Amino acid sequence: MTTAAQLRKTAGSLPEAVADGGAFTVGGVVFAALADKQAELRLPAAEVAEVLAAHPSATRVRGGVRVPLADINGQQLNHWVRRAWLAHAPEPLAARARAAESAEPGTGDLPRAIGRPATRALADAGITTLDQVAALTEAELLALHGMGPKAMRILREALAETGRSLAG
Asked: Record's Gene3D superfamilies (predicted)?
């Protein structure tokens, strides 16, 4: 079981995602929406079939699938929201995100100790250097799905070692 808050957090954390009422868009195209305690995801047909097979309470809707939030766990929701986003993101943005999926700790000059989820979150946002990290605020970094307190501490320490800090 998951919540509307999780859907909003996940969809809103994706690069260039824009919240518009209960809907989320990328490049001006809706990829996810919240309607009546259900997640509506705009997915390619093959992926709609996967969601329908995994969730008997899911229903096919024009352009995608609708699944009750009570019938999907947070990890599954995160996966399908990201897949919907990838299906509708402009190609250069989607290509960068697909490349980020295989980013390993130590990408660019980022510290290896931040871990795989934080490394991928940063790479997904096009951030591969400490200079790019320093240009952001802590709030901006924590808004990236996969960034947590440990990664933030490690990044702050790495910046401090070179006489830099986060913006703001």
From this structure: 5' to 3' exonuclease, C-terminal subdomain
Domain 4-97 is of which CATH architecture? Alpha-Beta Complex (3.90)
Which tokens go with 51? Answer: 């969601």
Spans of all domains in the chain: 4-97, 102-161
Element (H, E) at 24: strand 23-26
pTM for the predicted model, two decimal places: 0.73
Cβ atoms of 42 and 72 within 8 Å: the answer is no
Dihedral sign for Cα 60, 65, 66, 70, please: positive
Tokens of 142: 């924590």
Q: Which helix (H) or strand (E) holds 67?
A: strand 64-68
pLDDT in the model for residue 13 = 85
CA separation for the pair 142, 121 (Å, rounded) = 10
pLDDT (tens digit per residue) in 10-45: 999 888 999 998 999 999 999 999 988 999 999 999
| φ, ψ at 162 (rounded to 5°) | -110, 15
Cβ 14 vs Cβ 81: under 8 Å: yes
